[in-house]
Each structure stands twice: as C-alpha cells, then as structure tokens.
Amino acid sequence: MKRILLLLLVSALLLSAAAPTASVTCNPLELSPCSSAVLSGARPSAACCAKLKEQQPCFCQYKKNPSLKDYVNSDNGKKALKGCGVPIPSC
C-alpha cells in the first residue's frame, strides 16, 4: 500500500520535474529500487545506491516538492543515503 502511494506521488511529480543539469534528468521514479529502504528501513541495494548517486543533483528539488519532501527528509531516507555513502543534501 505504501509503495503504491509512493509511486502515485512520484508520478504526479513527473509532470513538474525539471533537470538541474544537462547530464541528469530528475525523475523520482528512477528511485523505485530504494522504496524498501525508504519505506521500511531495509538495507539499500546496490541498484538503490546507484540510483541515489545518479539522482543526487536532484535532491534539493525533491526536498522542495510537497509530495516528496517527507521521503527525502525521513530517517529512513537519510539512512539509505548514508548507507550508500551519498551526502545528505544541505539545501
């Protein structure tokens, strides 16, 4: 149920997602491999870590989005970032 809600919220964001750099397209659906890590605190998979690193330039944009900020700012979200060696955004 939580995954469905997350995917619905992320889908809504797709309509307003913009790329902050030419090399990365901000697409929160790319973070779907991280759903179990963010929603339940599971250990992030290698696929999750790769996507977190890829989408890192987008995190400030995600933090500003009302539909996504609770996931990015959550303890489990921060735990996933830390587990993958990705810095927590300070924006």
From TrEMBL:
- Keyword Oxidoreductase present in the record's keywords: the answer is no
Q: Which UniProt keywords apply?
A: Lipid-binding, Signal, Transport
What is the annotated signal peptide range for this record? 1-23
Family annotation (SUPFAM superfamilies): Bifunctional inhibitor/lipid-transfer protein/seed storage 2S albumin (SSF47699)
Organism expressing this protein natively: Ensete ventricosum
Q: Which family does it belong to?
A: Belongs to the plant LTP family. B11E subfamily.
GO annotation, biological process: lipid transport
**What is the name of the protein in this document?**
Bifunctional inhibitor/plant lipid transfer protein/seed storage helical domain-containing protein
A Gene Ontology molecular function term of the record: lipid binding
Name all Bifunctional inhibitor/plant lipid transfer protein/seed storage helical domain ranges: 28-91
